[in-house]
Amino acid sequence: MASRFAPRPAPPYWAVIFTSQRTDADGEGYAAMAELMAALAERQPGYLGAESTRDADGLGITVSYWRSEADIHAWRRHVEHAAARDDGRARWYRHYELRVARVERAYGWDAADGAAPPGGTGWDLA
Question: Phi and psi at residue 125, in whole multiples of 5°?
């Protein structure tokens, strides 16, 4: 099974957090457009990966990761992405929120690795 986790590059990098509430309309059309946009994003300069989930009530969260703010702006201006946003507002979303954040720290852990990550979590702020 392929991982649903995006690769974790060394910080700093950027995260675009897109939280949305779907309508009940045109589920097949939405799925096709989501697949198309994911494939298109993968080909954009500065794209680092994405993680996405949606619950049974239609609330979804997609986090895409980017090398720079300039790369995020270029993706926003992409013609096909702009058309997909218009379709989303017209047909597929009741509401959405978009947040952009700079990732300063990142770490991970996997049960298959066993022990805690070396050096703790990196969140010791005292």
Answer: -100, -5
Strand order in the sheet with 13-22: 47-54, 59-66, 13-22, 93-103
- Provide the pLDDT for residue 116: 67
Task: Say if residues 103 and 12 touch (Cβ distance below 8 Å).
Answer: yes
Please tell me the distance from the alpha carbon of residue 72 to that of residue 92, in angstroms, as a whole number.
22
User: Tens digits of per-residue pLDDT, 39-85?
Assistant: 999 999 999 999 999 999 999 999 999 999 999 999 999 999 999 99
